[in-house]
Design brief:
This protein is of the alpha/beta class. It is built from seven helices and seven strands.
Length: about 240
């Protein structure tokens, strides 16, 4: 019963924040107001859901610079956890199907987030060019979930090269991000919502300079994955 009430409150709060995000995205193309709404949204969702957020490693990077945040992914709550935890102006890569969702999807499409068509290689490459332009012109960092999909168990899955192709092409440093505990909040494939704690750890930036070949990308991918695993906590 409490889960149903919380889910209804989350849906209502998401709808309200989405309306404001749409309005602000239309009137303020610097996205300053949009990012304020994203902080309000993430704070509210965590509060309604009775989820505590622990963040470590903020001293490892500058909140004023631009990065590619590469994270593991085990729950829908990873998104709000990162929206709340990352102090930089940030956007995420999202699959184009989400843009069809009324209000929530519309604000994603209008905002600074980067839509990608995973079934069309040429369009996906254009999305990377779009991400690079966004990062360079508006000082917006990009968040990428390197596993490509959510883990069923919370165990970190193999990373996909797409995230690192983006990172090397845009040329900004990578921040390895380890999210722990979110798989117990709302496991993939369920709507059961459990109170608990999500821990987010940010490691030090890794340069993408000199990454030119497929072998270089794979070595970088494995290096980042090892760091994410090392900082992942059992919760």
């Amino acid at each position: 019963m409490f889960t149903v009430i919380k889910l209804l409150l989350i849906a209502l709060f998401t709808g309200i924040c989405s309306v404001f995000a749409i309005i602000f995205a239309l009137i303020d193309r610097s996205f300053t107001l949009y990012f304020i709404v994203s902080k309000v949204f993430s704070t509210g969702i965590l509060w309604i859901s009775r989820i505590k957020l622990e963040v470590t490693g903020l001293e490892n990077f500058s909140p004023d610079k631009t990065y590619v945040f590469v994270s593991n992914h085990a729950s829908q709550y990873d998104i709000v956890a990162l929206q709340k935890a990352i102090p930089n102006r940030m956007a995420m890569i999202f699959k184009k199907e989400l843009a069809r969702i009324p209000l929530f999807g519309w604000q994603l499409a209008l905002g600074p987030y980067v839509m990608i068509d995973r079934k069309n290689y040429e369009k996906a490459m254009r999305s990377i060019d779009e991400a690079k332009e966004l990062m360079e012109k508006k000082n917006i960092s990009i968040v990428v979930f390197a596993e490509g999909t959510r883990s069923l168990t919370g165990e970190i899955q193999p990373f996909k090269r797409g995230a690192f192709r983006l990172a090397t092409k845009v040329g900004f440093p990578i921040i390895p991000v380890s999210i722990s505990g979110s798989n117990k909040i709302m496991p993939k494939g369920t709507y059961k919502l459990n109170p608990g704690t999500i821990h987010v750890h940010f490691d030090k930036p890794i340069s993408t300079e000199g990454i030119n070949t497929r072998k270089d990308e794979i070595e970088l991918m494995n290096k980042v994955r090892d760091i994410v695993i090392k900082n992942h906590k059992e919760m």
